[in-house]
Amino acid sequence: MRLGQEQGTVLQVAGGVARIRVEPSEACGTCSLRGRCHEDATGPVVEVPVADLAVGDAVIIRKRSASRLLLALLVYTLPVVTLVVGALVGNDAGGDSTALVGAAVGLAIGVLTVVIVGRIGTARGWWHVTVEHAPAVQVPVSPSRE
Known about the structure:
With 146 residues, the protein is α+β, with helices and mostly antiparallel strands. 40% of the residues lie in helices and 25% in strands.
C-alpha cells in the first residue's frame, strides 16, 4: 500500500455512511496512537460517507496528500507559534512570570484552535477521503498435467 491509502472491509452501511474495518498496516505498529483509533473487536474502524458499497466489500481508502500536509502543519506548528507569541506578549506586559502565563495561555489557545478546526473540518469534509472497490485478486492457475 502507498502512503495515504489503506485496505479495508465494509462492516455496515446505513444512512449513506459506511463503517469500514481497516487492515492494520506497517505504520500502525509504530504509531503513537495505535490501539486507540476508533477500534472495535475486529480492529481499527473508520466511518466515511459513501453510497455504492455493500457489507463485505473489499475497499481501498485514499487520503489526499494536501489534507495530510495541512493537518500536520496545523497540529504541529500552530500550538508552538501561539505559545511563542503568548510568551512574547506576556514578557512585554510584565516580565518573566507573565511570560510564563502568556506562554500557557498561548499554548491553550493554539491547542483549542486545532481541536475546533479539526471538528469543523471533519463536519465539512475538509479532510477528503475517497473509498473505492479494491481490485479483484486473480489467482494464477497452473496448467494441469495430463
